[in-house]
Amino acid sequence: MKVVILAGGLGTRISEESHLRPKPMIEIGDQPILWHIMKYYASYGFDEFIICAGYKQYVIKEYFAEYFLHNSDVTFDLANNGITIHNNNSEQWKVSVIDTGLHTMTGGRIRRIRPYVGDEPFMLTYGDGLCTVDLKALEEFHRSHGKTATITTVNISEMKGVLEVNDGGQVTSFREKEDRDASLINGGFMVFNKEIFDYLENDETILEREPLSRLSAEGQLMSYYHPGFWQCMDTQREKQKLEEYWASGKAPWKRW
Question: Distances in Å between the alpha carbon of 221 and those of 49, 106, 146, 151, 214?
Fold first, then answer.
């Protein structure tokens, strides 16, 4: 099963970093978060990737074109115009980086990579989130129900205390947040059958709006609930949190 990664957005919510490079190329430790995501998928045996690039897409292409330079020791023989690669730390991956446009929306980006996916089911995720989802179990769940789409759902906790207010404006209850207050959201790590392309009209199509709403209304959208670790990287604070996990040597997503 191929893995499609959305990596073409402008990353405006973390612009301190993304004005220099695409958001998925922002580093956690000494590697882009995109690399962490791909290593996680590959640890489950999913090693064929289609990257939907856009904003500064050449940065992603150059990274993979020079992957051995980033990850191996190299001797340059300038007199003879030769290169020797030592302890080659490459990956058994097949990576297609596709320019899906600068301003194309998420659904439009997926629509553009249809020729690279073919008619088989495929996985899809965003290029800015890490997790401990059991990807094999996710695949098995998707195949078992026969619907068009599966999204991984996660709980995102409330940040503040919880108020209950009556119609007259009186606060009837105030308490600290609890686990039961958490909202259920789409955490990415999705699986789609080829029928998803019937829901993607053009470059302006936003996957998370009309397509997923229509799939839900038609009974073609299933939820795979993940209660474990999940973290996106929308802000510098969230980036720092992921950095701290990695620096500790106990990053939850590191299973390679």
Answer: 23, 17, 10, 8, 9
Q: Is the pTM of this model over 0.90?
A: no
Q: Give the DSSP per-residue string, 209-246.
A: THHHHHHHHTT-EEEEE--S-EEE--SHHHHHHHHHHH
Q: Could you tell me if 94 and 48 are in contact, meaning their C-beta atoms sit under 8 angstroms apart? A: yes
pLDDT tens digits for 11-60? 766 766 667 889 999 999 999 999 999 999 999 999 999 999 999 999 99
**b/e string for 211-233 if b means 16 or more Cβ within 10 A?**
bbeebeeeebbbebebeeebbbb
> Rounded to the nearest 5°, which phi and psi values hold at 37?
-60, -45
Phi, psi (rounded to 5 degrees) for 163: -110, 145
Domains defined for the chain, CATH in brackets: 2-247 (3.90.550.10)
* Distance in angstroms (rounded) separating the CA atoms of residues 73 and 188: 35
